[in-house]
């Protein structure tokens, strides 16, 4: 079947301000996120792509824009089922204050039981994303052959939930995974099982250096999603 190249959107203004953006409109890439997106075409230059699929949110469209500009013949499809998790009443709130919510412990340790007030459950989020990928795999293979590759730009919790599904990992363990902004994750699907070929690849190892403590300059940057470390 097809090979899926999953891209988490570049760093956004919500990531740097420590806000759980969810589906809040108008969340754009920040300066660093725009630079990450600009580097994406070169990172994928050797990969023939059959299609690009995007979450409907602005930050994902902005992440794919340089790639689409570099490949004017690459078709773009918007897929609602890979939209960000609907965090409901949590959307737009600071992650620092959400850490005091009793539900956050459930999100971290028992995600399959977590449902956001006024939003959706994490289980429903994973189910719709997996369904979307299965449908796109079949479509890409039917139109371009079983060796075809396509790129899909989505959000941190969506990417992690898709990786968990590919690995046969229970959703309760998916918070053990981490994908940085504009990282590339690659899953090759076959008739019998998927293979995880890359996970959160940015080509940048600076992120493994010790992080600044809370209160230090730059400490407000957050990876994103309700499970951000």
TrEMBL record:
Transmembrane segments: none annotated. Keywords: Hydrolase. It holds the Pfam family His_Phos_1. The keyword Secreted does not apply. The keyword Hydrolase applies. SUPFAM superfamilies: Phosphoglycerate mutase-like. Residues 208-229 are annotated as: Disordered. PANTHER family: FRUCTOSE-2,6-BISPHOSPHATASE TIGAR. This is Histidine phosphatase family protein. The lineage of its organism: Bacteria, Bacillati, Actinomycetota, Actinomycetes, Kitasatosporales.
């Amino acid at each position: 079947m097809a090979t899926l190249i999953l891209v988490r959107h570049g760093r956004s203004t919500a990531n740097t301000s420590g806000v759980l953006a969810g589906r809040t409109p108008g969340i754009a890439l920040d300066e660093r996120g725009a630079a990450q997106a600009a580097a994406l075409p070169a990172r994928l230059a050797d990969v023939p792509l059959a299609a690009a699929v995007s979450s409907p949110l602005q930050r994902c469209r902005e992440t794919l824009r340089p790639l689409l500009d570099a490949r004017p013949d690459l078709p773009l499809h918007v897929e609602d089922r890979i939209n960000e998790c609907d965090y409901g009443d949590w959307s737009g709130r600071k992650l620092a204050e959400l850490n005091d919510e009793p539900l956050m412990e459930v999100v971290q340790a028992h995600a399959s039981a977590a449902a956001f007030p006024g939003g959706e459950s994490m289980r429903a989020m994973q189910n719709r994303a997996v369904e979307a990928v299965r449908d796109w795999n079949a479509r890409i293979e039917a139109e371009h052959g079983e060796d075809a590759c396509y790129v899909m730009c989505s959000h941190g919790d969506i990417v992690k939930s898709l990786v968990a599904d590919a690995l046969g990992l229970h959703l309760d363990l998916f918070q053990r995974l981490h994908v940085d902004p504009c990282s590339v994750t690659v899953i090759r699907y076959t008739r019998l099982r998927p293979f995880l070929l890359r996970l959160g690849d940015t080509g940048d190892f600076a992120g493994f250096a010790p992080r600044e403590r809370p209160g230090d300059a730059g400490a407000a940057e957050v990876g994103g999603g309700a499970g951000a470390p």
